[in-house]
Automatic annotation (TrEMBL):
It catalyses: sn-glycerol 3-phosphate + H2O = glycerol + phosphate; sn-glycerol 1-phosphate + H2O = glycerol + phosphate. GO terms for biological process: glycerol biosynthetic process. This is glycerol-1-phosphatase. Its cofactor is Mg(2+). Its EC number is 3.1.3.21. Pfam families: Hydrolase. GO terms for molecular function: metal ion binding; sn-glycerol 3-phosphatase activity.
Amino acid sequence: MLTPTITHVIFDMDGLLLDSERIYTLLNGKILERYGKIFDWPLQAKLMGKRTIESAQIIVKESGLTGILSPEAFLEEREIMLQMLLPTCTLLPGAERLVKHFHANGISMCVATATCTDHFLLKTQNHSRIFAMMHHVVKGDDPEVKQGKPAPDIFLAALRRFEGHVEASKCLVFEDAPYGVAAAKEAGMSVVMVPDPKLDASCHERADQVISSLLKFSPQNWELPPFED
């Protein structure tokens, strides 16, 4: 393929930089278990990249709990447990190395995440050094993000906040979710996908590159400065 000139990088966060997805999976399962329901992989896959209230609506509907449990009540119950567990998020393999590498080589970066501001602060409180290397962060509750992924709103908002006029075609997005990949492509950007291994290969089709881990990313394949080690 012809490699576009990349000048800026946009990272998703959950399941890409941070291992937060395991916490949501655990808590969603605990709540549904009380209603005799199972939080399985097909349901989890439908939530990837979705904003908080959208995820809750999908969980309630797909689990057959409409009229029994409201999305708002689901979130209220889960929130108590999230406050305790989200600060335990750890960086996923390769995340710190890649962010530090781009920062050291003057590649401007940002984060575009569906998570809300309160949860972002909890998840990142022990990783402030890494997230301080980002030029900016756009979150799911940002006023400019009218629609969640797969709409391109969040990536277009992220693009506008870089310094100067930056063309979408010069942005490389790192995503783990099909909705996120679709949103980035709709925004006119290139995408490296790092999917969950359980995700069906048909969900990889729109990505420009698919890798199993950020550790597998080779910057030189995108004409970016190579790792020194």
